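Problem 12. The chain below contains 237 residues. Write out its predicted structure in token notation.
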Amino acid sequence: MFDRLMDCRSCLLTLLLLAVLVGLGGGFLQGSEYFVETVVAHRQLQADFERQSVRLREQEQQQLALQLGAEVDRQALEKMRRTVVVLDRKLSAYQEELDLYRNLVKSDQLEKGLQISNFLIRSTEVPGVYRYRFALRKTEGLARATKVSFTVEFEGQLAGDVASYSLAQLDPNVEVMPVNSRFKYFQLLEGALHLPDGFEPESIRATIWPSKKKTRSSELVMSWALARGQVNKSGGE
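Solution.
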């Protein structure tokens, strides 16, 4: 009987061991299946991530291309705008030159003798610095050159007081007043005015005469605003 009990225990142990092995085997199989599913899911996520990354890079490149294209368009538009501004300035300058020479060849409305005319003042990019130009001309004695002398004065206000400066004081390239010159038909003079700080010019007074006969002088008086082209001319200069 003791032997039978031992055999039964052996059978039970064997069955229990088999059950444990079967359980472990089943758990291993289930764990393996879960692991495989996890690996597959991870690979799918990795593939999705790579696809989305590629798409994102493509979109970023497209956006960059659009931005670069917009910047190129902006630069091209700005370059075109600057070109138009330069051409407009050149056109205005050419028109001004044309008007000047048209006026210079018209002498029927001028008084006889020497004249200072076509006085122009134009701004520059430097505050207080202006470009000027005017013409010396004559309406008689055109067969020979004439020696002349002239002065130019700029009158205005400085710190609430009346102030006057000569062309020689405002243009570093003009040494003294009067200026002596010689021409046959007409002569154009131009330069740069450097106004003192606080000086507000109001009028221009220019006088010309034959170098040997100052009593035969001719005078031009005009406003600074008119020379700047800020008011309409009411008549010929």
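Discussion. The CA atoms of residues 77 and 158 lie 44 Å apart. Students who got a different answer should revisit the alignment rule from Section 12.3.
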